[in-house]
Write a structure and sequence with these properties.
The N terminus and C terminus are likely disordered. The protein contains 46 helices and six strands. It has 927 residues and is mainly alpha-helical. α6 packs across α7, α7 runs antiparallel to α9 and α27 runs parallel beside α30. 56% of the residues lie in helices and 3% in strands. The strands form three sheets. Strands 1-2 form a two-stranded antiparallel ribbon.
């Protein structure tokens, strides 16, 4: 009796319209007609299925492939043009139609019936609008890809303007002159009135209709603020369903219409199409990014009315900043608190998807600087600065104009809330039990854009008590993602943000404050506390540099510059932080590192500036660092007399030690039974060897820095593309023109100190030519170090200040050690260093010149590719918006699936209740 029940339900009702969807792929009247039949008319009924067949975005992206659109563009391009015109025309008509938006389903039964194809002719206007948006989302990326740098097809279809007759001008005498203002003089010469036949052609006028692209952007703006579609119907005024009000409370608004799942989903659909239109940039190579600006993004940032810009900017910003949690108790909200819930519920809730889409659109609009949208350069004093205007990029301009304190507080609290949520997830006791916040990278970039564009917000942040928390969150996130190659671009952005903040004096004044947030124990040295903000900043930067072995070489300069900018404000550094600074200095002074790349000595120069700044500004407040510097006197002295030959000999010595240890390890492996018989003796020998190696700093760091390599381009990126005029060069200029610390010291120190400096410099000037073959083996990427090159940077190192401190304090500390018992020596030395003053020996402290991050063309292109790379990766799942298209702005690297982790095991166990699915291979954009 029940055997034919499925057929009975499916045949007349078309349950879920599966048959029609399958037929769309297989029938001649389906997708294949788009590229097999030429010149399909706009009035053909074939186009109707594009509006009624699909129920979800996944339907569109699975039933219409990129191959179908690409083939149609090659075989029947006029059909693709007709499809775009038909879809946009239907979209425009539906938005203005009184049946749109359709009433949402109010019950489960009505919701289920919406999936069943009935014989009713009732029209679902909302569904047709959504399908119009989805079809354009699918078609346009392929059009952009095929067009590349050429845009003839787009100009013809989307940007062509048509002039039409505007009808006969009213012939009222008093209104006639307003249409012939320019021809007044000619008319008076003829002596004819307005009713003469000679003026009859002038009574007609033509007007230029907006292009299809312009009308599409206007329509999308209307959809974002349409009552019943993206806004609640209760705020509709009379019969005007388009109401430009800010979506949520926050910047510019104190009222909140309230959350709604259906409205959030509709907003996401509209924003996704807006993002697709803006993605025209990714199909342009980096070299042409400034010369071939996207028409679509240019129109949004330069032609959108001021009211629409402000409403959209505040709506997107408030949606991102407002907490995602609601007071409504739903199945999703309860399930979200269950550990490993993301392994069971694979989808993304509508609120998270909307916040992520808002962030992506915001970042793209605030980043855009191409063609006429480039910031204007203004001269202010000695330095030139750039700033946006309402004519270049209205979104950047109005973000920079925010000034209310309550708005700043709202934005800062929201951004900190997102970063705090991510830190709590990474610090969870159950590994992988909570899903990472998917839009943290975009949040970081948005924060960077706000502090870059809005100087008042930057000042508010640095003056608030939350400045230290923000620094801690940024450093923690850097530590979390530093070992993930696909996140290295974001690590670079974080380093530039830290450099930007460090250049502000208000930032330095906060470094002595304690960190109040809970730092994960894995990022705090065992047996210590994270201490002040300066301590945590130093130990974090050391961890990033020491544990990445050169894989993050592009961010090292920015991080060391941040230390140099902040060093004048260091106070009461802990023992651990002081030792970390000396370890960084020792690593950068290693010959293998110094001689491997032309830009490496720059990092050593910056570390010496860190020590000099502490000595000049807070000598007695940092006894731990002062003691560490004095104990490392040998390293400083060897650096002062460094030559190419000496460096090559040291590299060879360390290499021989490594080879000897490798041979010893091989012998120990072969003589395993003998080692067991002499286990006690071997343990003693191993301990002795480790202690000996630990005392040899050249060997201790050889393994860590052997693979570390910088290029000149990486260093330039770390300096923001270029330095401002007040920054100090690596090689010291002549004494009368140099503002550096070392030359300032030379002009003011005593004769005794001058003699010591001359001795050091004369010794280092003894040129000892090294073996050219050995030097060639040290340099990376074809670089060949020479003695002339070594002399050029070695004599410019600001070593004089540190050497003066060592020469003055070392004998006194040795006397203290000789006259005291060992148990009391440490305390006595600390007390002595806290009370020491060297004002009679040191010259006056030089003027502070912080190195700010300065944008260049290369850095702008890099950040644009980083933003769009993130959008590309987000778009891969579940729809694959830009998949299988030839992106030219960045390179997409397909990586192999990683080994199974504990979360994969949990997914297999818990997910056994559900049908297994094949996971996509991980993809990442190389930045």
């Amino acid at each position: 009796m029940f055997a034919k029940l499925p057929q009975t339900l499916t045949a007349p009702f078309g349950l879920l319209t599966d048959e029609a969807k399958l037929a769309f792929r297989s029938r001649p009247q389906g997708i294949s007609k788009l590229y097999t039949t030429r010149h399909i008319a706009e009035v053909d009924s074939y186009w109707d299925q594009y509006f009624t067949l699909f129920d979800t975005p996944s339907d569109v992206f699975s039933l219409i492939s990129t191959h179908d659109i690409r083939r149609a563009l090659l075989d029947s391009p006029e059909n693709v043009a007709t499809l775009i015109r038909v879809v946009t025309s239907r979209l425009f008509n539906l938005v203005s139609d009184h049946t749109f938006p359709s009433a949402p389903p109010v019950s489960v039964a009505s919701y289920a019936s919406s999936f069943i194809k009935t014989s009713s002719t009732e029209r679902n206007a909302t569904k047709e609008v959504l399908n119009s948006l989805r079809v354009l989302q699918r078609v346009l990326p392929v059009v952009f890809e095929v067009e590349g740098e050429s845009n003839s097809f787009e100009l013809e279809v989307l940007w062509k303007k048509v002039e039409v007759d505007d009808g006969i001008v009213p012939t009222a005498p008093e209104e006639a002159p307003q249409f012939v203002i320019e021809d007044d003089e000619d008319g008076s010469e003829g002596g004819h009135g307005s009713s003469t036949p000679s003026q009859t052609p002038q009574a007609k006028r033509t007007k230029t209709l907006p292009s299809l692209g312009e009308k599409l952007f206007t329509c999308l703006n209307d959809l974002l603020f349409c009552c019943g579609f993206s806004l609640p119907t209760k705020i509709q005024v009379d019969h005007y369903k388009i109401n430009y009000v800010i979506w949520e409370k926050g910047v510019g608004s104190t009222t909140d219409p309230g959350p709604n799942h259906a409205y959030d989903s509709n907003k996401t659909e509209v924003l996704r199409l807006l993002l697709v239109l803006l993605s025209r940039q990714i199909y342009i190579p980096p070299a042409a990014l400034f010369t071939h600006p996207s028409f679509y993004t240019l129109h949004v940032v330069r032609k959108t009315p001021r009211r629409d810009v402000l409403t959209m900017l505040c709506s997107l910003l408030n949606t991102v900043i407002n907490p995602a949690t609601t007071n409504n108790i739903t199945i999703a909200s309860v399930a979200g608190k269950v550990p490993y819930n993301h392994l069971v519920f694979k989808g993304e809730d509508s609120r998270t998807a909307l916040v992520g889409m808002c962030l992506q659109v915001l970042c793209v609009l605030l980043d855009f600087q191409s063609g006429p949208a480039r910031d204007t350069i203004s001269e202010s004093g000695d330095a030139a600065s750039s700033s946006p205007t309402a004519q270049t990029n209205a979104f950047r301009y109005f973000l920079a104009k925010l000034h209310r304190t309550q708005d700043f507080s709202f934005i800062l609290s929201g951004i900190i809330g997102i970063l705090e949520q991510q830190l709590a997830i990474s610090n969870n006791l159950l590994p992988g039990s909570k899903k990472s916040v998917p839009y943290v990278p975009e949040t970081v970039i948005l924060f960077w854009k706000i502090i870059e564009l809005n100087k008042k917000f930057r000042a508010y942040l640095l003056d608030s008590d939350k400045a230290v928390d923000v620094l801690a969150y940024l450093l923690c996130y850097s530590l979390e993602i530093k070992d993930k190659p696909q996140q290295h671009g974001l690590c670079r952005a974080l380093s530039y943000i830290i450099q930007t903040l460090s250049a502000e004096p208000a930032f330095g004044n906060k470094l002595s404050s304690p960190i109040k947030i809970q730092i994960p124990s894995k990022w705090v040295p065992q047996g210590t506390s994270h201490g002040t903000a300066a301590d945590f900043m130093i130990t974090s930067i050391y961890s990033i540099v020491a544990t990445t072995s050169g894989s993050l070489n592009s961010i090292y300069p920015a991080l060391i510059i941040a230390l140099a900018n902040a060093a004048p404000y260091f106070k009461n550094l802990s023992v651990v932080a002081s030792n970390r600074l000396l370890q960084l200095f020792t690593s950068f002074s290693n010959p293998l590192f110094l001689l491997s790349d032309e830009s490496h000595p720059r990092l050593l120069f910056l570390m010496l500036e860190v020590f000099n700044s502490v000595v000049f500004h807070h000598l007695s407040d940092n006894p731990n660092l002062l003691y560490a510097i004095i104990t490392a006197q040998k390293t400083f002295e060897e650096l002062g007399t460094f030559t190419l030959a000496r460096g090559l000999r040291e590299i060879q010595r360390v290499q021989q030690i490594k080879e000897e240890q490798a041979r010893q390890s091989e012998r120990d492996r072969k003589d395993g039974p003998q080692q067991e018989r002499a286990s006690a003796e071997s343990a003693h020998q191993e301990k002795t060897r480790l202690l000996r190696n630990e005392s040899d700093p050249a060997f201790a760091i050889a393994l860590d820095i052997e693979s570390t390599s910088f290029s000149g381009q990486d260093l330039e990126a770390g300096l923001g593309g270029q330095e401002q005029t007040e920054t100090r060069p690596l090689t010291s200029p002549p004494l009368e023109n140099s503002p550096t610390t070392s030359t300032t010291a030379i002009t003011s120190v005593s004769e005794k100190a001058r003699g010591k400096m001359k001795a050091r410099r004369s010794l280092s000037s003894d040129t000892i030519n090294g073996d050219p073959m050995a030097a060639a083996g040290v340099g990376r990427n074809g670089f060949l170090p020479t003695q002339e090159w070594v002399t050029s940077w070695q004599q410019g190192l600001p070593l004089d200040t540190v050497m003066l401190v060592i020469s003055e304090l070392l004998p006194k500390i040795q006397n203290l050690q000789a006259g005291r018992q060992k148990a009391n020596t440490a305390g006595v030395i600390t007390d002595f260093l806290q009370s020491v003053t060297l004002t009679d020996v040191l010259p006056p402290a030089p003027t502070l010149y912080p190195r700010r991050f300065v944008w260049s063309d290369a850095s702008i292109v890099w950040l644009t590719s980083l933003i769009w790379g993130g959008a590309y990766v987000h778009g891969m799942s579940p729809l694959g918006i830009w998949n299988s298209t030839n992106v030219r702005l960045f390179f997409v690297k397909h990586t192999q699936p990683q080994q199974r982790q504990i979360t994969d095991t949990m997914s297999s166990v818990v997910g056994g209740l559900f049908s297994p699915t094949r996971q996509r291979p991980e993809r990442s954009s190389n930045q």
